[in-house]
Amino acid sequence: MIRRPARGRPADPAIDGALRRAALEVLAERGWRGVTIDQIATRAGVARTTVYRRHGSLHGILLMLMGDIYAQVPVPDTGNVETDLIALMRDVAAVWRDPDHVHYLSALVAAQHEDQGLADAYHAQFRHRRDATTAIVTRAITRGELPPDTDADLLLDFLAGIVAQRILLRRDSLEQTFPETVVTQLLRGFA
Amino acid sequence: MIRRPARGRPADPAIDGALRRAALEVLAERGWRGVTIDQIATRAGVARTTVYRRHGSLHGILLMLMGDIYAQVPVPDTGNVETDLIALMRDVAAVWRDPDHVHYLSALVAAQHEDQGLADAYHAQFRHRRDATTAIVTRAITRGELPPDTDADLLLDFLAGIVAQRILLRRDSLEQTFPETVVTQLLRGFA
Question: Which one of A47, A166, B51, B85 has the largest count of C-beta atoms within 10 Å of its C-beta?
Answer without folding.
Answer: B85
